[in-house]
Amino acid sequence: MMLLSAARRTRRLSPSLLAGGTLTTLIVAAAIVSFVWTPYDATLIVVENRLLPPSLAHWFGTDHFGRDIFSMVLQGARTSIAVALVAVGVGLLIGVPLGLLAAAQRGLFDEIVMRTNDLVFAFPALLLAILITAVAGPGAVNAILAIGIFNIPVFSRLARGSALSLWTRDFVLAARVAGKGAIRISHEHILPNIASVLIVQGTIQFALGILAEAALSYVGLGTQPPDPSWGRMLAESQTFVALAPWLALAPGAAIVLTVLGLNLLGDGLRDLLDPKTRIER
Amino acid sequence: MPLLAVHELSVSIGGTAILKSVSLSIAPGEILGIVGESGSGKSMTLLSVMRLLPRAARAMGAIRLDGDDLSEKSERDMCAIRGRRIGMVFQEPMTALNPVHTIGRQVAEMYVLHKGASTREALRAAADHLAKVGLTPDRVPIDRYPHQLSGGQRQRVVIAMATALSPELVLADEPTTALDATTQVGILELLKGLGRRDGAGLIFVTHDLAVVAGLADRIAIMKDGEIVEEGPAPAIFRTMQHPYSKALRAAATLAPRHRAPKNNDAVPIAEAKDVGVTYASSWAIFGSRQPTRVLDGIFLKVAPGEIVGIVGESGSGKSTLARALLGLAPMTQGSVSIAGESLAAAQGKKLRAIRQHIQVVFQDPYGSLDPRLRVEALVAEPLHLLDRTLSRAERRTRVETMLERVGLAPADADKFPHEFSGGQRQRIAIARALILEPKIIVLDEAVSALDVSIRAQIIDLLRDLSDRLGLAYLFITHDLAVVRALADRVLVMHNGKIVEEGTVADVFADPKHPHTKELIDASPGLEAVLAARERAGAAR
Fold it and tell me: How many Å apart are CA A61 and CA A68, to the nearest integer?
């Protein structure tokens, strides 16, 4: 709704929005297609087909177990998107209400939330994720949790900062005169007004989530075999990179294109939703 | 030869004409006032002369400074002209100055840049020049930073920068709009003196007719990118032909209001007893907690149907008092009661019932309406205070009635705020304040951000509503003309205290407190300014 009306206002789509939107749609489409169709079973091991170079039968070649790389990349998209999506969701669902509440209450609660955020921020994100998966055991669910926890302070800080500036606005004061409480004002006035910032940050965190999942899987703490994952495909291709470079190329390109697409999409959305590009006033 | 001659200047941005064939000229030592409402193109005219138009703008026509066509100059040549031959003074002195450099350094920069002076020479010249604009080193040392100065002093620094190299032409864009009335007087005198002394031409852009009436040699009135009328001041005020100039003039002279005094024995609709507000700095681990006293021992009564004006300069505590009455500012002493009920003691249902009696309209019609909500939701917001939930149809009917009452169409309920002009938005804000049929509305600078012609309309609307509905207003403003036009009684605030109160007629005719006198002297009406000029002209 908001996006559509914003697009109608500016009457044109920026190149980065178009490119980012197309790339992201392609990747998401690939992930969805993988549920119903992949050229081969991505987990099917055919030893005699191992390390085949790209051909018409195997578009991206096969790995050292003879599995079809194209099928694995398609299914890997599923894992990557699922992990990143849930991680962003965790960040949004917990971080945004925390930030809104901190901005509304101020005082001690605000201080506690923000200092806890600082604490989480003080650890490098990936190190934290490795710590969590090392303690709780490797696996997709724990990876989601680890990446999601790191997203909470990102969103709560952003929500708090944007909300604070809105709390000084007269329309919020008018709502207080109308007897509305902090939570109601946060929900009815603050949230709709910071939604565009959150959407933009969401796409960026989504890209970071995909990178983080790949990194965790690369070190063996993310998605576990036999489920394919771009990060683990990269890790496994290392030994054969001189022998079969396509092994590394396919998942590597998939990661790069997805992150690039999402970043472009984020940039495009920011331009589209930026109040300065609106004709208001 | 005129100092500056603008010939048939037209500017368009993205196909929209901003300036339409504007021609004007100014002689050395002359002061030209350009008057117009927001969007009339007055600032664009100045930016065209400086060649500082937005990138997307296309300009046509000739701009000659002493015979040189500026529109043919390269950007490099313009850099040498800006500051050296043309100086510019902006509206908001805080943003026009760099906060991390001392004022001395910022003025000295002009000498270093354009004259190649050494830092030491430049600083000495800057100190001399700052003294000329009234910032003598013994009172305001040149190593001060902008935030350490008052608004008026900051504007003096900006003027010093604009005039440091004795430019032939000074452009001033609303230079006193952001300042208090008492500060404005000094700045106007300073600008006037500079032109007379150095023989520089001054173009003074403003929305305030009274300001140019006292200052300018010639006045040009702009509307929708065109100069609709131009002539020597003050004679132009007698010969005005164009309907727009006449409307502007009529709007600038608000008629005082006389009505029978209200019965002050009735239970006051709003009452403040010994109210004090002290701000401690918020909860912080680090940093000082030095409290600031914003309001001090305020006693105030508003009778039903009475209009009470509160005047004072920025920082005098007017808005904090309004917030205390609305229950939005935590009071550190005293009590507030609305319709005889104490605000502090009430909670929940009781508090909501009290709040139905008092509503508010804020200054900025752009900031006081949530841009993401439709007008229906905005106007209906206070209905939240009712005990029962209204049906959709009932809600809609009430919103439509209110919109009609403030002069808008019922169908406007489906629009978003950005589809309305500033004056219409303020009507929406008034409709929101009216929907619960309160007994008193707090108007916090409610007409200050509006153009003069719209301001007059809103004041008429407020008068009418008060007469018809028996509404009381607490009208907070820095604009004495508005108080005179609307209020029955006036309170003068200074440094968080009420220093004078009385009926409007009494206070304006015979101010007792020196601060009140200062305020009244600083903001004469247009008629008073014109009369003074005619007298001065006759004496000469």
Answer: 6
Confidence (pLDDT) at B286:
52
Q: Å from A15 to nearest chain B CA?
A: 20
At residue B32, the pLDDT reads 92
**Buried-exposed string B142-179: b where 16+ CB fall within 10 A, e elsewhere:** beeebeebebbbbbbbbbbbbbbbebbbbbbbbbbebb
3-class SS letters over A29-40: HHHHHHHHCCCC
Choose the most confident range, by mean pLDDT, from A229-233, B474-478, B536-540.
B474-478
Which pLDDT score is estimated for B124?
92
Distance from B369 to chain A by nearest Cα, in Å?
A: 5
Burial class (CB in 10 A: 0-12, 13-18, 19+), B359: buried
Measured CA to CA, the distance from residue B185 to residue B130 in angstroms comes to 18
Cis peptide bond upstream of B514, omega within 30: no
ipTM of the complex: 0.70
- For CA atoms B365, B370, B373, B379, give the dihedral sign: negative
pLDDT at B474: 93
Digit-coded pLDDT (tens) for B178-200? 777 778 888 888 888 877 777 88
* H or E element that contains B326: none
Q: To the nearest 5 percent, what fractions of chain A are helix, strand and coil?
A: 75, 0, 25
pLDDT of B132 over the 80 cut: yes
Are B106 and B161 within 8 A, CB to CB? yes
Nearest residue to A205 (alpha-carbon basis) of A164, A153, A249, A247:
A153
Pick from B351, B366, B381: CB nearest A281: B366
Length of chain A: 281
Strand partners for B7 = B62
B356 backbone dihedrals φ, ψ, rounded to 5°: -65, -25
Q: Is the pLDDT of residue A279 over 50?
A: no
What is the number of other CB atoms lying within 10 angstroms of the CB of residue B414? Answer: 10
| Yes or no, beta carbons of B368 and A170 under 8 Å apart | yes
Residue (of B221, B229, B210) closest to B40 by Cα position? B221
Q: What Å distances lie between residue B392 and A74, B399, B410, CA to CA?
A: 50, 11, 15
pLDDT tens for residues A100-110? Answer: 999 998 888 89
Per-residue pLDDT at B288: 54
d(CA A4, CA A8): 6
Chain B residues with CB-CB distance to A under 8 A?
282-283, 285, 326, 328, 351-352, 355, 358-360, 362-364, 366-373, 381-382, 384-385, 418, 429, 432
pLDDT level of residue A278 (50, 70, 90 thresholds): very low
Residue B487 and residue B484: Cα distance in Å, rounded? 6
Q: Which residue of A has its CA nearest to B421?
A: A281
Distance, CA of A89 to CA of A148 (rounded, Å)? 8
